[in-house]
Every structure is written in C-alpha cells, then in structure tokens.
Amino acid sequence: MLVACEYGMVHVVSETGGPKGKDYCILYNPQWAHLPHDLSKASLLQLRDWTTSVLCSPSDLPAKGFSNQIPLVTRGNCTFYDKVRLAQGSGAHGLLIVSKETLVPPGGNKTQYEEIGIPVALLSHKDMLDIFKNFGRSVRAALYAPHEPMLDYNMVIIFIMAVGTVALGGYWAGSRDVKKICNNSLPYFHKCPQVRMLLLALFCVAVSVVWGIFRNEDQWAWILQDALGIAFCLYMLKTIRLPTFKACTLLLLVLFIYDVFFVFITPFLTKSGNSIMVEVATGPSDSATHEKLPMVLKVPRLNASPLALCDRPFSLLGFGDILVPGLLVAYCHRFDIQVQSSRVYFVACTIAYGIGLLVTFMALALMQRGQPALLYLVPCTLITSGALALWRGELGMFWTGSGFAKDLPQPTWVPASAEGPQPLKDSEAVFSQQPPEAQVKSTLPEEQSPELAHPKDVADVSTQEPTSPVSHTPEPTGLPGTSA
Length: 484
Hints:
Structural class: alpha/beta
Number of helices: 14
Order of helices and strands: EEEEHEHEHEHHHHHEEHHHHHH
C-alpha cells in the first residue's frame, strides 16, 4: 500500500450568483492525479451531492452518471479505489469523499494509481454542511493545490521573542549576583514591598484571568498566552541556577536525547503514527474541547496562502526550547561577572542560541514536519561556550564553576565592634586579611595604651604599620603592656 498526502483546496461558488466564493480544505493523494497549483487553471464543475450513497457498487451510480461533475459521496463500506473507479467510469472529473472522522489520505497500490486519472480527496462533514448552508444545493467547485511558502513571517516574531527572552533572562540571572535585595521582618514578605510591584502583580493576575476565559479565541488570545509564557520563562531563568558547566552539559544532553526520541522515534511506536511531542503541543486532533497545554509560544501564520485553513494555523515553540538553553546562557553571564570577562561568554552563547534557532527554522522548512529544536540548539550553545572557554584558557574554571566568589578563600577572623560582632561585607573581604600585629593593636583597650589615647596617634600608627609581619613580630609575653 502506497500512501502520500497533500493538502489542497476546493473553491466553491453558487450557480445562482449568491455570496462570494469560499475555499475549503481537502486532503488528497497526488499519486491518483495531480491538482493544478493555480485556481485560474482549475476547471469549475458542478458539485453533485450524492452523500446518500457510499458508491461501492454500480447500483449506487445515478442513471445518467456523473458527466463533467464532482460527486460528493460518503466514506465507508469499500476501498477508495472502488469508489474512484466507479466515479471515473461514470464520467466524473473528480471525487470528494465526505468523512465524519479525521481526514486520512486515500491510498492504493501502484497498479491502481495507473488506472485512475481523476483526483480523489477527502472533505470533512462539517465543511460539507457549511457549503450547502452558505451556497445552497446548486454549487460549482474547483479543486486545486496552491503552493505553500517554505517559511512564514511569523517565524521572525517567534525568533525575536525566543532570543529576547533567553538574553533578558540570562542577563537578569547574572545581574542578581551583584545587586542587593533588601529584607524585612514582615510575615510572608522577605523583600521590601514596592507599590509598583504590587501594581504589577495585580496586572499579571488580570491578564491570567482574561486568558483563562478567552484562551480558545484564536484571533487574539495567543498574545496573552505569549506574554504569560515569556514572564514564566524569565522567572524560571532568574530562579533556577546551574552551578557548573558540567551540570549544564549533563542536563542539556539528557534533554537533547529526550526531545529527539519523542519527536522522531515515537511516531513508530504509536497507532496513529503521530509524534507524541507534537500532539502534546498542539492538542489531540479529535478533541471536542480543543484544549491545549499552554506550554508553548504561538503566533498565527501571516502568509496569505489558502492552505492556512488546512494546516495548523499557528507556529509553535515550546518553553523547553527556551528554558533549557537559557539556563546555560544564565550560567555564562554569572561566570562573566565573577571572572570579569566583559560578558564575552554571555554574548557568545546568546548568539549561538540565535544561530541554532535559525537552523531549526531551516530544518522545519526543508522537512515540512515538526522539529525537535533542542537537536540544533544544544550543540550550538554547548560547543560555542565550551570552545570559548578553551580558547581563553578558562575551561577548568568554567567546567567546575571554580571562578565563582563562593569558592574563593574566606577570612577566618572578623574584627569586633562596639556594637558587637557584625557580619563581614563582601566588599571588605579583601581588606580583612591584615598582618597579625595590626589586628592585635586595633583591639587593645584604650586604658592599656596611654601613648595611643589620642585618635590622631591611632591613625598615625595604622598608616605607618609595615606590610610584612616578619620584621615586626611582637613578643607574646609583652602584648598587654606593649606600646607603639
């Protein structure tokens, strides 16, 4: 059994000059007969409603046949070949099979294809009802298959949203390492509340509620879903931190295999032959509720091709294709800040992500099927960041994360103050490791050092203190009464 399928269109107009013509989606097998790509080259023939018959035997044919007509018949009871052979023998110039189920491509074997010279296609039962409702029973139809552009303009919007989210989220995650977050004692609020943050929270709740109510409105609800999705990705990139490039590599490689398996391998394991990953993202085709998991960025197709009615009307990019490489971009920015590398890792990894996304779009255009984006994003980002660290001679630190401040030696002694022990600030860590005698003299009681009672004397001593502890080591037995 040889099966091939393509989407086509049936253009319907009223014979009585009623409303303007309308296109409806059909699924046809080009191995039966090819359809013209231009509507102007397609023959406009009478569409004959013969759906009371399944057209499986000569007794199902009308007395005068289907001369120069395109009959509509019901699916079932026999093969597609039986139906189209009878229709062609009775003078039909095409055959539309009405299906109440999911559209499937009409198939046959090689010898059957050679016998048939008219096109055969499937039309949904819902579209058939719409045709007769809007145009009446006297209608004409033309079958054609317009060219579909390889890439849609909405890919530009998805590219900007994805790269912008990764860049902003990675930059934000790294910048948190050098900014203060103020604390307070309010219950359940560990940060200083700000009016603008409260207003932002109310706005976000309002957007979420509106999207929840109108989530299936394809005309504009996708804008709210994308806004919520970008906010979610930014928060996750700010919150989740991978400590080492080793951890980044392991995570990205595991999810790389996961993505490839569920897109390319699962079609061979399912009865429908569809990818599990694609069905999760787009929702089941036979769902009555049309509910979909809001785990993707979606943008409607912007081209003017009539085939947009047939194929999925949206282009999708999963959150995982943003978050997984975004975690590596965030790690690169944090590493940049700690080793003071002028954000070279962050910029390089962000550019690599953009290149990987462009390669994904190219593969989508060439293969005309859903692609596992991590198949292209993971190698681009991992190889670029690793090669850059190797070129800069920092691969060891980059791999283990040893360039971060938490791994630097910390002082073991903190000077006491009049108000009691105080935690040492990060900016003062490098000044805490002073020679031992300087630390001792700074803590001597004022009454035991009469020569240094005046603040000016204390300042003079501290500024004249030698930097080498070897040449001026104080005697241990003379500390309480030793003067400068």
